[in-house]
Design goal:
Elements: H1 5-11, E1 14-15, H2 21-26, H3 38-41, H4 43-56, E2 60-62, H5 70-74, H6 82-97, E3 103-108, H7 123-139, E4 144-150, H8 153-165, E5 171-175, E6 178-179, E7 186-187, H9 194-203, E8 208-212, H10 219-232, E9 237-240, E10 246-249, E11 252-255, H11 259-262, H12 266-272, E12 274-277, H13 285-303
Helix pairs in contact: 4-6, 4-13, 6-7, 7-8, 9-10, 10-12
The structure holds zinc ion.
Residues 212-213, 242, 280-281 line the site of zinc ion (ZN).
Length: 305
């Protein structure tokens, strides 16, 4: 039987994947359209992206289900396809691994709004949406669930509970931090710092604590986040920083940190204790290929006498 993800990374750090959203755009998805629906309408395009990540060395693939909760899908009138879209996301990622024994991580992103009393959504609606999505991902065979790009502990908690109730073999909580204006530190948009987030995720039964996306969170800031997580938990840490800062060029959002620039941060991240390293917005199969080379070299050197 395959090892659980949390057991596999106790033995050796693993490589995650890179961005899905920006890759879907390159494959023809128009800004504002529903990328998750492609799991049903254009599965071959999603598969082609994920195969490139596997060829680049990814040990873990996140399913193309970031906006796959009923609440998010409802904006595109696809709410009734929620279960089918999530199940297809798991199948496609599994197919991308081919004969390889990789880990399929079911991706749950934010529900995209605010809960009462600040917003229009009831806690019950969010619970039901995450429960449905987590169950669809687990039933389709996901090896783990990641609740990612989270900024509030309330929403994160609903996601973590949904993953546990769905019977996920491994649960990952992932926060999006923003560097403060004066550059001195970073916290989530809702004011949560990494020490508190790690402690909270451990209390709520996460198996892996993670960070992804955010503003100003480059490889060096990700390294600092790993160290700060380890102040309040011994749980393994996963890091998926963006490929630099988004810039608007010709009315298109671009991320301009090259694979050669980003790869400089891989060994420092490993030395800080990160056990899964991938990329978020703007990262590509070329970034992951570089990460793979750096990680393999580092691990081979460590094994020398
Ligand atoms: Zn991102």
């Amino acid at each position: 039987m395959k090892k659980r993800l949390q057991d596999a990374i106790a033995e050796r750090p693993l490589l995650g994947d890179g961005a899905m959203g920006t890759q879907l755009m390159i494959a023809g998805l128009e800004q504002g359209n529903c990328g998750e629906a492609w799991n049903l309408t254009h599965p071959e395009r999603v598969l082609a992206i994920q195969r490139r990540y596997v060829e680049a060395g990814s040990d873990c693939l996140l399913t193309n289900t970031f906006g796959g909760s009923r609440i998010m899908l409802n904006r595109h009138s696809h709410a009734d396809a929620a279960v089918a879209i999530n199940a297809a996301g798991v199948r496609i990622a599994r197919e991308a691994f081919g004969d390889r024994d990789g880990y399929v991580i079911g991706d749950i992103g934010p529900f995209g709004g605010l809960m009462e009393p600040y917003g229009d959504f009831t806690e019950e609606q969010v619970k039901a949406a995450f429960r449905e999505q987590a169950q669809a991902l687990v039933d389709a065979g996901a090896d783990a669930i990641i609740i990612e790009t989270q900024t509030s502990l309330e929403e994160l908690e609903i996601g973590l509970i949904a993953a546990r109730e769905a019977g996920a073999p491994c649960i990952i909580g992932s926060m999006a931090y923003d560097v403060t204006l004066d550059g001195s530190t970073f916290r989530t948009m809702m004011g949560v710092d990494p020490e508190r987030a790690a402690e909270f995720m451990q209390e709520r039964g996460a198996d892996i604590v993670a960070l992804n996306c955010g503003t100003g969170m480059d490889m060096e800031r990700a390294r600092q986040a790993v160290i700060r997580y380890h102040r309040s938990t011994q749980l393994p840490v996963m890091a998926q920083p963006n490929a630099g800062q988004p810039k608007l060029v010709d009315m298109k959002v671009v991320y301009d940190e090259t694979p050669a620039q980003m790869v400089e941060g891989v060994v420092p991240l490993l030395e800080a204790g990160a056990r899964i390293i991938g990329g978020c917005c703007g990262s590509t199969p070329d970034h992951i290929r570089k990460f793979c080379e750096a990680m393999n070299l580092h691990l081979a050197e460590k094994r020398l006498p």
